[in-house]
Design goal:
Helices cover 26% and strands 15% of the residues. With 92 residues, it is α+β, with helices and mostly antiparallel strands.
Length: 92
């Protein structure tokens, strides 16, 4: 809640600076309803970097759908696990 309070004040003030990086785990995108996730969707991010991207290969899955709702200019998906598909297409 303290982080939310600080970020809210940043949204309201033109002098406040937003953090450069917000780090979370992939499990953050698994839950059906998450107050923090809904809160972070209020921001426009330049980059979203996601590790364990092999867990997002199902476009109909909950993780993929939750992640796709974030407003970003660029997305970088990382994985050390071989993805068992011939093509991986990422769109903005």
């Amino acid at each position: 809640m303290e982080i939310q309070s600080e970020l809210l004040s940043s949204l309201r003030s033109s002098n406040a600076t937003l953090p450069d990086v917000i780090i979370t785990s992939i499990t953050y995108f698994q839950k059906e309803s998450a107050t923090d996730r809904d809160f972070l969707r209020k921001f426009n991010f330049d980059y979203l970097v996601c590790d364990e991207a092999h867990l997002l290969k199902n476009a109909k899955g909950l993780r993929y759908k939750n992640l796709d709702r974030f407003k970003t200019k660029h997305r970088l998906l990382l994985t050390g696990t071989p993805v068992q598909v011939r093509f991986l297409i990422v769109t903005d």
